[in-house]
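Re: that backbone. Tokens:
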């Protein structure tokens, strides 16, 4: 730091207060200290943040423009208000700055060159604080985020402002989503040891206010029609779609995963487009990778995998889901608590997984059990067993698990199931929660965080809010300000 800078710093009231605190502390002997170390640490942090705030106030003022007019995006804006103070929130606390405002010639809302040039977000947040709040909101509620700043000793954002920020950022992200997602992919490399790329698709039901409204309307309509039967399905819930693109090495060890989460949408349109683009970008540089489509037995998932890009893919039904269906079928025959049934399940589960042609033997044994079940008393259980048998017959061509393992392919969709839990369930299904317009913002943040894309993605977001401003001086000439 130069002598001039040191002199300027020593003139700050906050710096003087910091010096006084340090001098007073130094003059106290170890047995004479009136402050505990904890109290001193709190006071020191407060004093340091005050220095930060005063320095930020001075530096923010440098970005203001005092001119007759400014040009932003090719449009001229004329000064309408001068020296208007405003308080912004920073990572060290609030800072208040006087700035000039400009309005277009035909009237309308004003702009603030200081905010545009520094990249102030949502008219309130400095870029660093906006990133911190957004990151926290990916993990915590708005109240918890606000409370955390208080605990850290920072006079920061309120719960309501924490709630608004992700929505502002999500609107911007969605406007540029395709371009920005492509930019993120271009800066990533496919590991040389990768031999398999697997795509998985799934969903999870989350509490939804629109879903609750629709469920209420259906209940009222049913009541008017005199229908007392309860409507099937979880009332007030809608499905969040989750998708993953995962790279594996030749031993089926997971190398990297990109995760996507999208709010309820017809045929998961945006989610499937994202998966298509992600897969195409990988195959463009590594066409030698073996492609795997991996999901549970839901028909909707397999309709997606009928796309041309998956024409040469190996399609696998998740072994875990297959095992659940096997257990349900055997439970229908033997009973859920039968020792004999549990033994049969363990034997057939391993056979299905490890024995070539194991699915055919499972189908044969379940068929034999169906034939053994007769009589009206067992009709319901026989129907359940028959449904599970049909499941294995329909999915037979996607259950050659011994062959898949021999080829080093994954046989479990645990990655996308984990995505459903970590992207959606852990954050969107906490006690008392119900969502409307805010859930995509949270899903986007969490998807970027869990895909190791948060830092480059934030660079794209924060850069969007920094805008070039050109000042029009009184003499009429233009000077570009960067």
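Recovered sequence:
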């Amino acid at each position: 730091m130069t002598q001039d800078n040191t002199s300027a710093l020593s003139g700050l009231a906050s710096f003087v207060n910091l010096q006084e605190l340090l001098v007073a502390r130094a003059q106290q002997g170890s047995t004479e200290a009136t402050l505990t170390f904890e109290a001193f640490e709190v006071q020191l942090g407060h004093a340091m943040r005050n220095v930060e705030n005063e320095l930020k106030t001075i530096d923010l003022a440098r970005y203001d423009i005092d001119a007759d007019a400014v040009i932003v995006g090719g449009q001229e804006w004329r000064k309408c208000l001068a020296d208007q103070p405003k308080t912004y929130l920073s990572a060290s606390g609030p800072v208040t700055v006087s700035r000039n405002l400009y309005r277009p010639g035909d009237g309308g809302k004003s702009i603030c060159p200081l905010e545009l040039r520094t990249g102030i977000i949502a008219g309130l947040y400095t870029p660093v604080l906006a990133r911190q709040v957004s990151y926290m909101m990916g993990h915590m509620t708005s109240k918890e985020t606000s409370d955390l700043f208080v605990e850290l000793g920072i006079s920061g954002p309120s719960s309501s402002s924490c709630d608004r920020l992700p929505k502002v950022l999500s609107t911007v992200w969605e406007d540029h989503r395709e371009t920005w997602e492509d930019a993120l992919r271009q800066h990533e490399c496919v590991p040389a040891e990768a031999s398999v790329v697997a795509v998985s698709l799934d969903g999870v039901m989350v509490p939804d206010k629109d879903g609750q409204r629709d469920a209420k309307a259906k209940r009222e309509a049913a009541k008017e029609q005199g229908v007392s039967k309860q409507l099937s399905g979880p009332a007030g819930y809608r499905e969040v779609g989750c998708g993953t693109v995962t790279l594996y090495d030749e031993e089926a060890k997971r190398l990297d995963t990109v995760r996507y989460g999208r709010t309820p949408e017809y045929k998961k349109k945006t989610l499937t487009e994202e998966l298509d683009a992600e897969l195409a970008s990988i195959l463009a540089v590594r066409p030698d990778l073996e492609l795997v489509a991996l999901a549970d037995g839901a028909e909707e998932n397999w309709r997606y995998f009928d796309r041309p890009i998956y024409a040469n893919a190996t399609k696998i039904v998740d072994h875990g889901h297959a095992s659940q269906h096997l257990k349900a079928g055997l439970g229908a025959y033997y009973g859920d608590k039968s020792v004999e049934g549990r033994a049969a399940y363990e034997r057939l589960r391993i056979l299905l997984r490890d024995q070539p042609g194991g699915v055919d033997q499972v189908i044969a044994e379940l068929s034999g059990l169906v034939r053994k079940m007769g009589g009206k008393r067992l009709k319901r259980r026989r129907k359940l067993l028959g449904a599970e048998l049909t499941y294995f017959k329909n999915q037979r061509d996607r259950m050659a698990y011994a062959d898949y393992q021999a080829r080093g392919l994954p046989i479990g969709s645990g990655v996308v199931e984990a995505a459903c839990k970590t992207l959606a369930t852990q954050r969107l299904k906490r006690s008392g929660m119900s969502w409307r317009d805010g859930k995509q913002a949270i899903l986007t943040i969490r998807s970027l965080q869990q895909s190791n894309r948060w830092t480059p993605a934030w660079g794209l977001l924060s850069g969007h809010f920094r805008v070039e401003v050109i000042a029009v001086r009184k003499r009429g000439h233009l000077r570009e300000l960067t």
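Strands lie at 69-72, 75-90, 93-104, 196-207, 237-248, 254-262, 290-295, 314-317, 469-472, 478-481. The two ends are 24 Å apart (CA to CA).
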